Amino acid sequence: MQNSTIGKINFKLIFPDILALNAASLIEQTQKVNRWKFNIDIAFNYQIDCFGQTTPGTHILEINPDRCITKYKQAKTSFPYYVNDYSAFGVIIHEFSHFLALTFHKSISSKYRKAFPTERLMINDCKEPNEDVDEEIAEIMTLYIVNPYLLKLISEKHFNFFKKQFKSPTKCTEQQFIEYYQKFPPNLKKKLLLKWKILVDVNKNCVIREILAT
Q1: Is the pTM of this model over 0.85?
Q2: What mean pLDDT is reported for the chain?
Q3: Is residue 189 part of a domain?
Q4: What domain count does the chain have?
């Protein structure tokens, strides 16, 4: 073998997206509370023509950072811990949810289809009802992992379904939800009110139940 005339060129990511690190930490917490053990690779793939992807049967969560929304430039319909989150945090947890449903915990997909054969719940604004049940599962599961109390407010039936499948690493309390809610931009709070009838009384620091019941 001939000696190379040039040295190696190494790529190092010195300061990865803090939102990506937060997602990795939440995946670790999910494993811990459920006593799961598996390896996961989070790959930054700039060639995929989407936010992210996960191939069934693999342990690789691919995201395209160029597609993801950064914490400095939030879209009008996206925010961490909201029903829509196109940041690295939301995309990684979304792909992790695909991994759980299609690779690690396959029974979730079949049980969900049996529990909700015709009832569709698409919480993501980018999807239309009946378009893709696997995407529906991943979106709802993502919310269950990152903000379970919000999912409970939107649909207690779906919340209870996922609660039976595995434990969320996030506290499912009104106060935890309100902590996230207070960080949402005004337009997203308005969307929660118009679409899901969810409103927080900032003075009393509680969800207004009367609106939820109407």
Answers
A1: yes
A2: 88
A3: no
A4: 1
